[in-house]
């Protein structure tokens, strides 16, 4: 194999392409849209002359493969990590900060949990025990995180003000939906050592980050084609032989990475080569929405660059102007995860519901004039990490020789995240090689 085709220019496709190119393979990366990044892309919002992320993305420092990919592409400065985990929180007018401390090992969490004044002291001590238990394990793929928390005697307040926000932020699923093993995995990766959970914020629009792959491939004899929609993956005698674009153009290769989500993959695969049962399996994972409400104000509204809200319909609020070091109007993003309740509402209805909550939670923004708004809905932002979901993930290997899969829905061990996607790309490249 000297050449390979990668279908899909999201994080997984970018990672697969970079890994193959690094090993001397000439890669053609095909992306159907006009921009790179997939679910982590940005687009031009003409009305304000700004490039806006389709979804606000946050990393944890334990997302080591994303960090490595950004470094490989020469854009590591696109993410700014906190020196130490610090999460400003609001419950009504009450403020607190959940933070990590300089103590060694998992002890770094202790002062933060014991000082978490949205819970009763008794609840904080119980949370310390629960955190220790999570760090030790929590392996059930069939039990929900909430059922397990309740079995441990966690109070409703502790679940709603501490554990559920963690579940929603990291898994895009409430604790009563998320599998215990994935909740525990994220918790372990993030908190078992100091700094694993430091938050990383992108400092520039996402497509500009992922577009670094264009030069990276070009320098290694490869190329990126945008607006290149693959219509079919072609196979012959059980082996892949290339792809056909929507324009009818055929591109030949004996090595193809399909880095597209399962709901896009089904229509590309040759039925006779993979079989009906395989195609049916692609439709089993359920998907969960995220809704981002972009608001522009004439002055700053938040004290911090981001804040997590509890006891409110608001979840996480980001000051993108500060995160991107922009001058001019204040651009906030209200990021609503596990957002089923918002999907059927119109942008105006969503704003009417959330704007008063924003004003209540951030009295320091009083008098700030709303200049503009934009609502971006992602009905299929991430797959639902519910009990049994592991069985529905896809193996990177396919029944077709020379065709491997990448994407956050493949069996990465990670939930539906950039880190999972990037890892899947590296795995796919390794399998091809
Ligand atoms: C609003 C939102 C917020 C999120 N927040 C976070 C976060 O804070 N942290 C985090 O880690 N993760 C977050 N995620 C999840 C993260 O974005 C995804 O897990 C990750 O981007 C998935 O990457 P992927 O490459 O597997 O898939 P995708 O990003 O879906 O990439 C697939 C690509 O394939 C292309 N494609 C599909 N079909 C074809 C075809 N026929 N021909 C050519 N190209 C095709 C698509 O256009 C797309 O570019 C968030 C997701 C959303 C939507």
Keywords:
Polyamine Oxidase, Chain A, domain 2, Guanine Nucleotide Dissociation Inhibitor, domain 1, 3 domains, 20 strands, FAD/NAD(P)-binding domain, 433 residues, alpha/beta, binds flavin-adenine dinucleotide, 16 helices, single chain, seven-stranded mixed beta sheet, five-stranded parallel beta sheet
Account of the protein in words:
It is a single chain. The protein has 433 residues and is an alpha/beta fold. The protein folds into three domains: 3-36 and 211-285 and 386-432, FAD/NAD(P)-binding domain (3-Layer(bba) Sandwich); 101-194, Orthogonal Bundle (Guanine Nucleotide Dissociation Inhibitor, domain 1), CATH 1.10.405; 286-383, Polyamine Oxidase, Chain A, domain 2, CATH 3.90.660. It is 33% helix and 25% strand. It is built from 16 helices and 20 strands. The strands form five sheets. The chain has a seven-stranded mixed beta sheet with strand order 8-7-16-17-18-15-19, with helices on both faces. A five-stranded parallel beta sheet has the order 10-2-1-14-20, covered by helices on one side. The longest helix is centred in the N-terminal third of the chain and has 16 residues, at 121-136. The protein is globular. The model has no long low-confidence stretch (mean pLDDT 96). Bound molecules: flavin-adenine dinucleotide. Flavin-adenine dinucleotide is lined by residues 7-13, 30-33, 38-40, 55, 57-58, 229-230, 259-261, 264, 268, 290, 292, 378, 381-382, 407-408, 416-419, 421.
Which homologous superfamily in CATH is the superfamily of the largest domain? FAD/NAD(P)-binding domain
- The strand order across the widest sheet is 8-7-16-17-18-15-19
CATH class descriptor name of the largest domain? Alpha Beta
Sheet having the most strands: 7 strands, mixed
Shape: globular
How many β-strand runs? 20
Helicity level: 25-40%
